[in-house]
Amino acid sequence: MTAVLEIEHLTKEFQRGDVATVALRDFSLTIEQGTFVTVLGRSGCGKSTMLNLLSGLSKPTNGRVLHRGSPHTGPTPGIGYLTQSDTLMPWRTVQRNVEMPMEIAGRPKPERQAAAAELIATVGLADFADSYPRELSGGMRRRASLARMLANGAETILMDEPFGALDAQLRSELQRELLRLWTATGHTIVFVTHDVEEALLLGDRVVVLGPLGAILLDQEIDLPRPRDPDETKIHPRFVELHATLVRALKEGARR
Ligand SMILES: Nc1ncnc2c1ncn2[C@@H]1O[C@H](COP(=O)(O)OP(=O)(O)OP(=O)(O)O)[C@@H](O)[C@H]1O
Questions:
Q1: Can you give the residue ranges of the ABC transporter domain (predicted)?
Q2: Which of 140, 15, 159 is nearest to 82 (CA)?
Q3: Based on the structure, what is the number of domains in the chain?
Q4: Which H or E run includes 143?
Q5: What secondary structure letter does DSSP report for 172?
Q6: Which of 32, 52, 104, 157 has the least CB density, counted as fewest CB within 10 Å?
Q7: What residues are in contact with ligand 1 under a 6 Å CB criterion?
Q8: Same domain for 221 and 165?
């Protein structure tokens, strides 16, 4: 297997005046191409800090990230990042929001219009292409953000609790869509969550983090795919893995 991201001994300190806060300490991980890795951890354990470093938006205090074998020094179109917050432009329709990355990249208008329409259909928003973000539900805005991120052409996708604020029904729907998209494209996904069920339903591998990003467990998820949420949750192996992950999280809380 080919490594897409090699994370080597990352440490991140935030300096405010004389006080330094360590958010991540000596974090190392290798992400293989085409895998779906979920990163599970309690609030404050450094998950967002880690994704910010992987995206290239933030620089480590120590350590480095190799992206396809080369040191990663800043944001690149090859890595898409879906943050927790909504970053759609309120004055642009869904269509024009999704076209934006391609506009910046200088792609001709007819080409980017067609590509955006296809992505919008992929995330199930074809009937809302001409709507403005304020006219959409929270779930629809997430879908639009996802389509816009895919418009960058990124093959490696970082997602920071993307469905955290949604109701259970919508969350299940989007989880299904994301899995369908991942199966169709073969992209590499690093998905951060604090939800044990979500981590298990989605991932090939779940990495459980403790304080300062300490890896408590790196667990392969050998559940059959496709994973229908309702059926998977009652699978004996799911129940067993769920208990294993909860145990690891509890151990982390005692550290
Ligand atoms: N810009 C910053 N300045 C100072 N401290 C920060 C900054 N960003 C994060 N931290 C600290 O780093 C630690 C890790 O934060 P981070 O947001 O990475 O955690 P998280 O696991 O993503 O949490 P959550 O699940 O709540 O989003 C926290 O103690 C936080 O207070």
A1: 5-236
A2: 159
A3: 2
A4: helix 138-150
A5: H
A6: 104
A7: 14, 21, 23, 41, 43-49, 194
A8: yes
First vs last Cα of the chain: how many Å apart?
Answer: 34
Task: Identify the domain containing residue 184 by its residue range.
Answer: 3-78+158-254
Q: Is 57 left (phi over 0), alpha (psi -120 to 50) or beta?
A: alpha
pLDDT digits (tens, 9 = 90+) for 159-173: 999 888 778 888 888
pLDDT at 93: 96
Same domain, 66 and 13: yes
* Residues 243 and 185 both lie in one domain: yes
Residue 55 corresponds to which tokens in the numbers above? 């995206």
Task: Tell whether 22 and 63 lie within a shared domain.
Answer: yes
Which residue, judged by its Cα, is nearest atom 17 of ligand 1? 48
The residue ranges of DSSP E strands in 92-149, in sequence order, are: none
Whether the CB-CB separation of 77 and 154 falls below 8 Å is answered with yes
pTM of model > 0.80: yes
Expressed in angstroms and rounded, the spacing between residue 194 Cα and the centre of ligand 1 is 14
For 177-223, write each residue's pLDDT tens digit. Answer: 889 889 988 999 999 999 999 999 999 999 999 999 999 999 999 99
